[in-house]
Amino acid sequence: MKIVVTSILVDDQAKAHAFYHHVLGFEPRHDIPMGKYRWLTLTSPNDPNGVELLLEPDAHPAAKTYKAALKQDGIPATSFGVRDIQAEYERLCKAGVHFTQSPTPVGPVTVAVFDDTCGNLIQIAQRH
């Protein structure tokens, strides 16, 4: 068994697609109309056949409450691994990304947290 799709709840699929593709650099994989919403996935440019990130609408009432509680408590919805956190932090800052935590060593990793503009905090992490 292996993970093939993981999802992140977003408040606007088009806005999320633009952010995750054009700002973060993930590559579009699937864009399938499904009524009001889409099956909209992206993958890492370093692993195009790897795990897909599903930009899932937060249409369920519990989803909005869950997302708001996580964000209010400063808890990232997910974490992405990076090779050079300082370079990634600087690249994303230049692209206008708002960080709530700059790169901070935490045991065997250095982490930073940013707002994805779609209702989530996202962590990036570099292992040492």
From TrEMBL:
InterPro entries: Glyas_Bleomycin-R_OHBP_Dase (IPR029068), Glyas_Fos-R_dOase_dom (IPR004360), VOC_core (IPR037523). Pfam families: Glyoxalase. SUPFAM superfamilies: Glyoxalase/Bleomycin resistance protein/Dihydroxybiphenyl dioxygenase. Residues 1-127 form the VOC domain. Gene3D superfamilies: 2,3-Dihydroxybiphenyl 1,2-Dioxygenase, domain 1. This is VOC family protein. It comes from Pseudomonas soli.
